[in-house]
Amino acid sequence: MNFFSDGVHDVRQVARGWRWGRRSQVPRSAEQFVLPQRSTVFPSDWSRRRPAMLAREVAQKGGLEPLFRSQVRTRVEGLDILERIQGPVIFVANHASHLDTPLILLSLPDAWRRRTAVAAAADYFFDTWWRAVGSSIVFNTFPIDRRGGSMATTPGEVLDQGWSLVIFPEGTRSNDGWIGQFRMGAAFLAHEHGVPVVPVAHRGTFAAMPRGQGWPAPGRRQLTVRFGEPMRPAEGESVRDFAPRIKDAVAALLDEDRSTWWEARRRAATGATPDPSGPQVAQWRRVWEQSESPVADRSRSRLAAWRRS
Amino acid sequence: MSRPGFVLEVDDRTPPLLVHQGLGFRLEDSFPLGTRVVYPPESISCVPDVEEAIRDALLHPLGMDPLPELLFAGMKLTIAFDDISLPLPTMRAPDIRARIIEQVLTMAADAGVDDVELIGANALHRRMTPAELKHIVGERVFRSFFPQGKLYNHDAEDRDNLAHLGLTEKGEDIEINKRAAESDLLVYVNVNLVAMDGGHKSVPIGLASYASLKHHHNAHTMVQSRSFMDHKHSAMHQSAWRMGAVVRDAVKIFQIETTLDNNVFPKPYDFMMKREWEWSVKDQATMLGMRRGLSLAPAKVKHKLFHDLRSVYGLTGVNAGEVEAVHTKTLEKVHEQHLVEVQGQSDVLVMGVPYLGPYNVNSSMNPILATCMGLGYYFNSYLDQPVVRKGGAVILYHPLNEGFNQLHHPSYVDFYEEVLAESTDPAVVGAKYEQQFADDPWYRHLYRTSHAYHGVHPFYMWYWAAHAMDHVDDVIWVGGDRRVAARLGFRAATTLSDALEMASSTVGTSPSITYLHNPPHLLAHVR
Amino acid sequence: MLALEMFRSLPRTVAGKAVGSRLPGLLSGYAAPLRLVTIDPPRVDRPGWARLRTRLSGICGSDLGALSGRTSLYFSAVVSMPFVPGHEVVAELLDDCEDLTAGTRVVIDPVLTCVVRGVEPCDNCAEGRTNRCSRITVGHLAPGLQTGFCKDTGGGWGQELVAHRSQLHPVPQGYSDEQALLIEPVACAVHTALRAGVRDGDRVLVSGAGSVGLFATLALRELTGADEIIVVAKHGHQRELATELGATEVVQPGEVLRRVRRLTGAFQLKPDFSSPYLLGGVDVAVDAVGSRQSLETALQATRAGGRVVLSGMPAPADLSAAWFRELEIVGTYASSQHEPVTGAEGRSRSAFDLATELVAHDAVVQLAKNVASYPLHRWREALDHAHAAGRLGTVKVAFDPRSS
User: Fold this and answer.
1) pTM
2) Does the residue C301 lie in any domain?
């Protein structure tokens, strides 16, 4: 009996002392002697193996999707482009909310969805084991370092294993729903690994669940997502030139989503596509504009309950 | 990349800290905030090629001709080496001494030397068993010398084989092994695990007789050795150095000293060397598993588990040549590996006494050895001034329940039952009983023919602790057997908090506390 | 009169033999062949005899042995059942007895000699070695080696008994009853010490620190030239008492051999599957316990040609050492009227005489103060206490029949 009660005591002591499930701490006076952080990121290879994939299928189909659809309405356009290409591809999307990832993933056809991984900030999603495990299982995330450090697994490796990636090149969720600076990472990967980039634009996630909010706003807000033509870097095109093209494509998709395909094309041709980073007006007006959900297509919304889109 | 030792200040972020406690360890989470914890430096860089480093040291000695030039046909060559008390824990084969001796013998064979003997410099320590000798010198050397009786233990009681070399200027007898004294060249192979080893402690002490040892191994000298880890301020070492000066004139000594890194715990025990807040989940699991295993295991199994542990030391340096020049170099390395700066003394010193000390290799840590380990070795691991202030308190962790090994420590039992029952004052004890124990024919017999420590050895252990007993007012054993602690003249407590409460009569209710987080070894330089 | 009577009981004796050594307390308390009875006071109408009223009567180790069935059947022939035990007696005379007047406080030399029995003195009695009397079963008394083992004389555990003038030793003025009670055991110790043949400067080991061992230590210290006296004591307070009574060293049972070895510079050997022994050791060892272990310790720790004194009723033990080391094994029983110590007039003195002087020793006076006395009806408690006397810190437990 002693054996067990002492064992329990030991485990408790260690759990408390080493802050199991929380971030471990270094005594203040020892901080200067701690080695520079090696990778403290949890490995995520396991999450792309068969058992994890199985668990993910269950989690997404049985948990995430019903939940997601109970909270928001979605409209997906442009999926037809996926029929024309083979994976892997890089989906590049604007980023305004935690809803973006489920929105994109659940919009994809099942075959694509099962082979798509999401790049997630290592410092946020991978610094505790439970968040790492949770996001890997449900969203198939893998860590990338937004500060430019090295990682246990690089996106390149994931691509090479045949996985499509979802990358939000802004690196972080937008503050006001408008698009921020695009980083070069996605363009670089496409260039390096010779895979096409599929621009994705979505609207309404900021209105439904902006940064700082833990749950979608009530009332089943409308979300829209639109996939664009796959892009490849042209012969001899540098990463530096390719990256802005991706951003332009996303901007054009946003424009198309807001208006019509034809109007957006014409504006794009004249270079009059509205700036996706929004008008330079007072901050409240920027937020005001984005906090309005896209208008739903009422005639179709009734069908949405049993038909995707 | 090795990090230096440092002093941790326990704060609210500090996880429980590992404290060694005999055949086991404890996770102590009740160190008061602000307790200083002294961590030893991590292992420093090792020599890349051990064989090459040894060859280089032998060919380019300090203050002497290269070894091959000292060897000639027809000479009498003696190789003496440190005994099983070093290093701790025992080194995983091959032992560094074996690798050195092999190279020395290769050179001797090339020079055509026929008369070679190898002597374990065990002074009054127990004779090593053949297996232990074999481990130290290596199979090749053992096979070549042991069956012929040319590889043996020094016998400090063999009147026929001791040579009196004269007196020091202070009138101390110098009497060492006759074979060593009469050799044309005496090669001494040492392992300088801690700062007290080596130098003139090698030949004048390792190969000495009781008559010679008693001049520096006594209560008075040990109280004046502050500390014996600092040979310039150690009365014991000063005596040894005086003897060394005389021995040097009589015997040509080629001293080879080696220094090791701090890699004392092999896997899977390596978590014991890590800083607790850097323990991985695996380390934590190993620790928890070990705790459970140890709580179930019978004492014998625990003993075997720990004593079978072999360290994978790295060699950080090897120097050869004239004793003092070599030792200066050696100490530099030892200090680099062990030294930690500590600012000022504290009221209470906490130390965990591990399962192993120099005198219980393959044996049991009896209460006297535990005392020697805590109050002798660990307490004296300082330069300049003790970590604890004069009149402070020492808190030690050890169960004090291992009992005595009758084969190795017969005189310890009597010392414990008879001498300590009467007095625990090192000076009193020494004056009244030391001679009796030294002259006891049975102890002498067991020392010479069995594997027993010399009859007088427990007294030395007690003298070792004399400085600490003189310096502090209170000694409390956490987790120690109450009756045993009382016999030793100390007190026992169940937990650290109890011990601190008991000590409060000496040091007040909010004393400053320092915990020496060793092993691995450290040497506190107290400013 | 009220008395505790020991009677013949086969089941109890058998039970005592079987588990007496393991559960002595339980057995002597609840299954001892002892009962509290009202019987007629003993009568012996012969000259020289007188009635006595018991003031205090001690419980001796041999009494406990008899009650728990541990005593050898050897002794069954020299006792007469049923009898009232108690041979350590302080009493007062109820009748005038020769030169002693009624009311005189006396202690009894319990040995029932030829004189007492009214027969011609045997050779031993004639020489004053009364404890060796060979006529202890004949004469006008029932068989019985001592008062307290004979059905005709009564014993100290009853309110009254009878004794012969030759057994009586008046207690000097100023002695307490408790002190006087210790005269008989001290007399036995005196006899032991003088039988031990200790020469000046000898080292003596006394194994046991119960009353026998402690008094033997005192007698050895006071009456012989022993140099070092090593006493084996199990309990803490015995350690102090032994030191006060003259021990130079007091050791734990487990430490004996090592301490003796250290003290005498002997060599210790360890035979296969048995306890170690010494080559060399003490000159004289006194077994004051009577257990196998104690006797073997004494045999193992004595030098070749030394002497082992059996002071307790001995248990069977390995006698190899006695043969191999040519040990003299000496028994000592009770006390003698003529001890080999000469008084002022050049006549040998009796052990009681010497003992009476010894109990005036400060340490004995102190010791007498914690004699625990019980009324007869609390005999179970008393016996339990006596069994655990060493642990409880009492040297002597006694009955006080007056208080019942």
Assistant:
1) 0.75
2) yes
